[in-house]
């Protein structure tokens, strides 16, 4: 990557593009060649887009959501204008000369209405549209020089106002085509091809701005002035002139001065900061530019904006300077609101730019984590970034973090340039730093954009608690030492300034304004270790100073000779114990934070790797990523036996406790010799015992973990469980059952349940572990109390009312119900099935006929315990139990369960006969449907369907209804025609007709069915030809390789 050039010192602002509007255009279908965006307008709340087909899309800027679509049949939309003082009104101009004012009524949830319509400019091209700044008036100019206005009525103006149609009035007719219109405080500014005119609309007076004419498209606009202590100054007029000049005129039209920008434009263009391309700055481009400013717009803070088809220019007329100019290709139209501008390109594409200072641009890029682009802007605008004023937006630590995010391999030169910038950074001004130093010891503060320091008191904060804890510790030590007749002076412990500074840093850290990709801001390992070192060293220093003070005080007083040794021993042991405990606490806290940070970094790295489809879809790469992440999980969240320990020390302690005299008499070498075989023996015994001891299942979190980290850990752990169950071949990896027992608190229960069902035949122990974990997890549920009472009816009712009701929890409660009784679980399951089929179930007369046959369409009836019945039927069981459950379902008319069990028992003919009697062909096509698999099954289904249709026709003839020959298809009924079409989709049209001939069945196909058969034949022929072509190509390729 080449070195980033540095812009001049006077360049402090940039145009930046942070949003991509291409998905919006794609959703509105405005990115096609047939339909394009023709114009746009913007306000605080809306972005309005006009199309070539006469459509108006109203987009809500917050979230970029389409709120309204209005259609105009009077031609394409050429101009749009949003009302500046009431965003419920918008003016639309079409290519046929129509001007419409719409009242949107979105706040009142009403229907948009055309509150004013003007055909005053019929047959002319409308060239400019602008709103009055106080009332609902719209001024319109056309290519003939005619300027008119129309007034809109609205219900907001009072009763009856919406029904009053105000006449359209002509304001003036100028000498040539209107280029631009502007309005401010009762004055209308009209810019034509030759002059600028100022019109007082209330007094109907006109002035010409200046005396010299011009020839061409030149714009003009009002520029409001700052409000001073004596009130608001009248706005100024700015009118474009040839040769990159602009007139500055008063509110009465008197020319005050002429600004020449031709020589100012002889400077290189500043790059556009965008995600689309890298910023490119060429300092050698310095040719003067003579530009016709076709439009002038009030933009940002006292700026003027103009553009050509290839560049955007921003001017500061109050000092006659050029703020910046940037090359932008194929510009067609521009709409502005405050410091934002929306550009319409000739290709129909939209761009959203923002005018920002360089430091604000870097801050926005840091929030969006665009690290290389932010570093490039820092290096390019380093004269602005290094100033002390920029520290309010981008402190030094943010720039340090930016440098750490850059890749050493890809951005080596950029990192070098950024390091040079870091060496030139200026801190905040001295006055600010002195004020900050005076309040930083006890209070935190925030520097607002206006320069005000907002102070937050820290009384009662953690640093004060530390001070109090040190004082309490000193007092307790003094009291303990007084018991041994020490006479001491009171000693007050001063809080350590390093500790206080560290606590200030930690407390101010959550208030950082920039966003990091992690759930909480991680500290770099070097900084974290340095903080731990400082903390421990400060505490040791304080303790040492206190010990020295106590020893000096104790030496000044006379103490009995006999107790001197004993007191010194007690004192040293007490001080050593206090120091050891404090250091232990510090180390434990710092170690826990560092371990959690390591787990967070490892988890984020694994999640980032899994974003690549090539890794996620490759089992080998996926296993490598998960195995790299697993050691961090084992070390930090693993069971206690996996934590690092010192078994030799524990064994030594036990031996010493058993026989202290013997251990004291042996030499160290003899102790090692006697302990080594004992240790080996104990380890062997422990390993043998672990093979037969059941592994404990962990269902609760052992440590507090952030919520977003919990979600990522759950995803990775569940993925590892599935991978280890179905495709794990690595000997270093944990077994699925072991991982499930250790980290069940991380897993997704529903995915684990499905996994256990899929692998039940090969690994039945997984289901046992899963059930044991779910039983322990649901132990605190209120349903357990009802189940323990032994009432099955109340238990089932409680299960029905259970919320949230998930399959894993229901399965656990059913398992608890099964093993609560002293009977065989399978027989108890049949009792539950019988009970669920008789409660909240449809009557038998609605599901079975008097001759015990399925009643027509009775499978569509609702069952109260449908989910429970589905779970009971799908539980693993033997062949005999499934037969019993199928018979029970048939006796009660639960046809969906009966068909599922027939499919499991391979009783397909019974299923086909039941489907024909239920008369619903969807039972063959659904995911759980029973579709014929062989030609014999198809023939059986066709014959059975023909007999069912014949019996139904006879029944209809008896009842006086017409016959249908069994060929009509009504609402998914089982007709011969529908079965034939289903067969044709499976084996082809010709084969289906031959199967019908073999069965001796004739079907009169409808026109729709004949067309479908022809389409199937055509698709079959094309598929056959495609296969033949591919085979020939493969054959030629193989022969060419063989040759």
Strand order of the largest sheet: 24-1-31-30-29
Question: What is the strand content?
Answer: 15-25%
Q: What is the terminal-to-terminal distance?
A: 48 Å
Gyration radius, in Å: 42 Å
User: If you average the pLDDT, what whole number results?
Assistant: 75
Summing up helix and strand content along with how strands pair, one would put the structural category as alpha+beta
Overall geometry: extended
Which assembly state applies to the chains in this document?
Answer: single chain
Low-confidence stretches: 430-451, 453-528, 550-578, 645-693, 954-971
The overall strand count is: 33
Major sheet size, sense and barrel closure: 5 strands, mixed
| Helical percentage | 40-55%
Number of helices: 34
Pfam family, one: Beta-prop_HPS5
Protein name: Hermansky-Pudlak syndrome 5 protein homolog
Region (Disordered): 459-519, 641-678
Main location: cytoplasm
Explained architecture:
By secondary structure, the chain is of the alpha+beta class. The protein contains 34 helices and 33 strands. It has a 5-stranded mixed beta sheet. Strands 2-3-4-5 form a 4-stranded antiparallel beta sheet, with no helix packed on it. A hairpin with a 2-residue loop joins strand 14 (178-184) and strand 15 (187-192). The relative contact order is 0.03. The model is unreliable at 430-451, 453-528, 550-578, 645-693 and 954-971 (pLDDT under 50).
SSE blueprint and pairings:
Elements: E1 13-17, H1 22-27, E2 37-42, E3 46-51, E4 55-60, E5 65-71, E6 77-82, E7 89-94, E8 99-103, E9 113-118, E10 126-131, E11 137-142, E12 146-151, E13 169-173, E14 178-184, E15 187-192, E16 196-200, E17 205-208, E18 220-223, E19 227-228, E20 231-232, E21 236-241, E22 245-249, E23 255-260, E24 273-274, E25 297-299, E26 303-307, E27 311-316, E28 321-327, E29 331-337, E30 340-345, E31 350-357, H2 358-367, H3 371-380, H4 382-385, H5 396-405, H6 412-423, H7 430-439, E32 443-447, E33 453-457, H8 462-482, H9 497-508, H10 525-556, H11 564-610, H12 613-616, H13 619-637, H14 647-658, H15 660-665, H16 668-692, H17 707-726, H18 736-742, H19 749-758, H20 764-777, H21 782-788, H22 792-800, H23 807-820, H24 825-838, H25 844-847, H26 866-874, H27 879-892, H28 895-904, H29 908-918, H30 922-925, H31 935-958, H32 976-987, H33 989-999, H34 1007-1042
Parallel strand pairs: 1-24
Antiparallel strand pairs: 1-31, 2-3, 3-4, 4-5, 6-7, 7-8, 8-9, 10-11, 11-12, 12-13, 14-15, 15-16, 16-17, 18-21, 19-20, 21-22, 22-23, 25-26, 26-27, 27-28, 29-30, 30-31, 32-33
């Amino acid at each position: 990557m080449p070195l980033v050039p540095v812009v001049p010192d006077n360049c402090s602002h940039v145009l930046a593009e942070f949003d991509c509007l291409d998905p919006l255009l794609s959703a509105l279908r405005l990115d096609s060649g047939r339909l394009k965006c023709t114009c746009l307008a913007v306000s605080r709340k809306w972005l309005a887009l006009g199309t070539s087909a006469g459509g108006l899309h109203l987009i809500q800027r917050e979230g970029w959501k389409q709120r309204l679509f209005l259609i105009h049949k009077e031609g394409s939309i050429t101009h749009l204008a949003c009302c500046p003082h009431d965003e419920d009104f918008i003016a639309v101009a079409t290519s046929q000369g129509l001007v419409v004012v719409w009242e949107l009524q979105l706040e009142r949830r009403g229907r948009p209405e055309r509150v004013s319509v003007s055909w005053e400019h019929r047959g002319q091209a409308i060239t400019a549209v602008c709103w009055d700044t106080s009332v609902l008036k719209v001024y319109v100019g056309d290519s003939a020089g005619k300027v008119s206005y129309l007034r809109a009525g609205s219900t907001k103006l009072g009763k009856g106002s919406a029904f009053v149609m105000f006449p359209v009035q002509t304001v003036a007719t100028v000498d040539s085509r209107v280029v631009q219109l502007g309005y401010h405080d009762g004055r209308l500014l009209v810019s034509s091809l030759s002059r600028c005119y100022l019109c007082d609309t209330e007094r109907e007076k006109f002035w010409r701005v200046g005396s010299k004419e011009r020839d061409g498209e030149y714009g003009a606009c009002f520029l409001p002035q700052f409000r001073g202590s004596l009130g608001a100054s009248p706005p100024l007029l700015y009118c474009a002139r040839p040769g990159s000049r602009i007139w500055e005129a008063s509110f009465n039209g008197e020319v005050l001065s002429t600004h020449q920008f031709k020589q100012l434009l002889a400077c290189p263009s500043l790059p556009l900061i965008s995600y689309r391309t890298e910023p490119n700055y060429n300092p050698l481009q310095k040719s003067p530019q003579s530009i016709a400013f076709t439009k002038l717009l009030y933009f940002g803070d006292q700026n003027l904006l103009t553009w050509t088809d290839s560049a955007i220019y921003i001017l500061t007329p109050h000092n006659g300077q050029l703020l910046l100019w940037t090359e932008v290709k194929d510009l067609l139209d521009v709409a502005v609101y405050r410091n934002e501008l929306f550009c319409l390109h000739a290709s129909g594409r939209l761009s959203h730019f923002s005018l920002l200072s360089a430091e604000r641009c870097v801050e926005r890029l840091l929030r969006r984590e665009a690290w290389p682009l932010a570093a490039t802007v820092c290096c390019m605008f380093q004269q602005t970034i290094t100033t002390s004023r920029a520290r309010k937006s981008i402190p030094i630590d943010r720039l340090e973090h930016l440098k750490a995010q850059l890749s050493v391999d890809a951005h080596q030169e950029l990192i070098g340039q950024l390091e040079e910038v870091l060496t030139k950074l200026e801190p905040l001004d001295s006055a600010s730093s002195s004020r900050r130093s005076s309040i930083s010891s006890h209070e935190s503060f925030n520097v607002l954009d206006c320069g005000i320091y907002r102070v937050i008191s820290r009384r009662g904060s953690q640093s004060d608690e530390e001070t109090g804890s040190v004082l309490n510790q000193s007092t307790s030590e003094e009291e303990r030492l007084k018991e041994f007749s020490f006479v001491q002076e009171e000693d007050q412990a001063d809080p350590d300034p390093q500790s206080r500074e560290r606590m200030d840093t930690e407390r101010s850290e959550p208030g950082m304004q920039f966003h990091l990709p992690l759930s909480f801001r991680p500290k770099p390992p070097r900084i974290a270790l340095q903080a731990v070192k400082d903390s421990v060293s400060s505490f040791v220093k304080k303790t040492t100073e206190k010990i020295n003070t106590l020893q000096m005080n104790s030496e000044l007083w006379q103490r009995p000779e006999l107790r001197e040794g004993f007191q010194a021993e007690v004192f040293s042991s007490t001080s050593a114990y206090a120091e050891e405990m404090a250091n232990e606490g510090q180390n434990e806290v710092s170690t826990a934070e560092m371990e959690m940070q390591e787990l967070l970094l490892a988890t984020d790295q694994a999640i980032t790797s899994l974003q690549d489809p090539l890794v996620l879809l490759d089992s080998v790469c996926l296993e490598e990523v998960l195995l790299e992440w697993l050691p961090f999980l084992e070390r930090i969240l693993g069971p206690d036996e996996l934590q690092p320990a010192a078994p030799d020390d524990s064994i030594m302690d036990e031996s010493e406790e058993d026989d202290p005299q013997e251990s004291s008499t042996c030499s160290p070498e003899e102790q090692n010799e006697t302990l080594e075989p004992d240790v080996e023996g104990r380890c062997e015994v422990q390993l043998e015992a672990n093979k037969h001891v059941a592994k404990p299942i962990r269902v609760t979190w052992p440590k507090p973990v952030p919520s977003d980290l919990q979600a990522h850990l759950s995803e990775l752990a569940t993925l590892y469980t599935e991978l280890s169950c179905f495709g794990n071949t690595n000997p270093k990896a944990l077994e699925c059952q072991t991982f499930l027992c250790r980290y069940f608190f991380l897993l997704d229960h529903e995915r684990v349940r499905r996994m256990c069902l899929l692998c039940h035949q090969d690994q039945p122990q997984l289901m046992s572990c899963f059930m044991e974990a779910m039983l322990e997890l649901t132990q605190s549920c209120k349903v357990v109390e009802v189940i323990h009472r032994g009432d099955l009816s109340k238990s089932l009712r409680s299960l029905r009312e259970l919320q949230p009701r998930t399959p894993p929890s229901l399965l656990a409660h059913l398992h608890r119900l099964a093993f609560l009784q002293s009977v065989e679980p399978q027989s108890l399951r049949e009792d539950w099935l019988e009970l669920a089929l008789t409660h909240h179930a449809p009557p038998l007369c609605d599901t079975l006929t008097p001759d015990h046959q399925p009643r027509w369409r009775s499978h569509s009836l609702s069952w109260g315990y449908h989910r429970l019945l589905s779970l009971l039927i799908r539980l693993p069981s033997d062949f005999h139990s499934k037969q019993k459950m199928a018979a029970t379902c048939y006796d009660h008319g639960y046809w969906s369960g009966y068909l599922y069990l027939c499919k499991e028992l391979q009783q397909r003919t019974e299923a086909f006969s039941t489907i024909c009697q239920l008369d619903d062909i969807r039972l063959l096509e659904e995911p759980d449907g029973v579709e014929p698999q062989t030609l014999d099954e198809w023939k059986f289904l066709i014959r059975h369907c023909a007999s069912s249709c014949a019996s139904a026709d006879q029944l209809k003839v008896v009842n006086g209804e017409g016959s249908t020959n069994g060929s009509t298809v009504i609402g998914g009924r089982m007709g011969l025609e529908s079965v034939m079409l289903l067969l044709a989709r499976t084996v082809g049209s010709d084969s289906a007709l031959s199967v019908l001939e073999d069965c001796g069945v004739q079907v009169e196909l409808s026109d729709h069915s004949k067309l479908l058969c022809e389409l199937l034949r055509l698709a079959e022929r094309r598929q056959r030809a495609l296969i033949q072509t591919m085979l020939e190509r493969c054959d030629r390729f193989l022969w060419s390789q063989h040759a």
